[in-house]
Amino acid sequence: MNYREEYRRKLVTADEAVRAVKSxxxxxxxxxxxxVVELDRALAKRKDELFDVKIRGTSRIGTPEVVKADPxxxxxxxxxxxxxxxxxxxxxxxxxxxxxxxxxEQPRYYREHIDTNVLFLAVPPMDEWGYFNFxxxxxxxxxxxxxxxxxILEVNPNMPKCYGGFQEAVHISKVSKITEANWLLPELPxxxxxxxxxxxxxxxxxxxxxxxxxxxxxxxxPNAVGAMIAKSDLKDxxxxxxxxxxxxxxxxxxxxxxxxxxxIDKYKVVCTFALGGRTTYDFINDNPQVAFYPVDxxxxxxxxxxxxxxxxxNNCVEVDxxxxxxxxxxxxxxxxxxxxxxxxxxxxxxxxxxxxxxxxSSAYTKKxxxxxxxxxxxxxxxxxxxxxxxxxxLVTEYGVVDLKGRTFWERAEAxxxxxxxxxxxxxxxxxxxxxxxxxxxxx
Length: 443
Known about the structure:
alpha/beta; Glutaconate Coenzyme A-transferase; seven-stranded parallel beta sheet; 16 helices; 28% helix; globular
């Protein structure tokens, strides 16, 4: 096959490409930094011709044009498997619907449970062998390509080419149409760690060792940990994570990361997607040190556990005094998704010498009043992301507690000990009312 000739034969404008979408179709937009732009604009222009078109994306940065064009949801319905900041706002307005996923299972959802009529996917330019790399969104992209009726690619020269372990590219023979674009990848603004983030990061740093294999979530606290690691004397760290973020670049450039003590993917930095600033995108581009795998590999708890000393560091919204963790909703309001927190909390604990940290500030301010993140019972409607049986270390700026092997009354005592001091007496009274506080408990 002459791949260049095949490319020219399949090349069309975005307006021509979106003619493949019919009323009633399910359309995929890709994920994270790799979601389409020109195809989204072209589809929005077809609003009056189409009805009941359902669109799926993941943590899109910016509002999709189909949503702007149809704020009444009469023609397009936008859905997301993990609400990013923009999607959270849309969800509050009734313009984005959440699809709950256990992240390491997501490829199987597409292969067994979800119909996809048309896949829109943003990719780097084709290589000499006719392959289009998935860029920084390997995640569940191959499962989409295997199951979609029609594959339409949006080729963008600004998209980084990301080396993979497997399932990181699709061949032109599988592609129906190609369109070209030239937009810059969306960048996450830098998140400056707060004083509380710094305190929590310091507590975690005390528990890190040479040869640890790290997973970091997103936010000020993980950024603080990354900055501290870069300035530390830790040696031979490994990285096996779902999301590659800016703080990893600092750690690698500082020589903290070698991957030499990993049991699998030795010397490689392993992830399934990247989302950050220009520093991240430049670093991962054509860099053989970084290996992008599908999420059913990176986030499989049994794969995670093959490395020793895995350290998972993630945030949460609130926790109750028995250790149930909510990381994705504020009461009934969905603000995020399960993501990989369950995957890595379980996988890290299964790892020999592994540690899983779930972190939060002890309290926050709402309308001028201080509100505890530690509750006697979770806020009504709150989603339990990590069950109490799964949680290992819980961290606030007031300390670190190990919940493994703890009875109800031991859990209550431990968790209340790291609550904000203003709420401890009240939490003890509520624990007594719930019957999870012994007279011998510390006060």
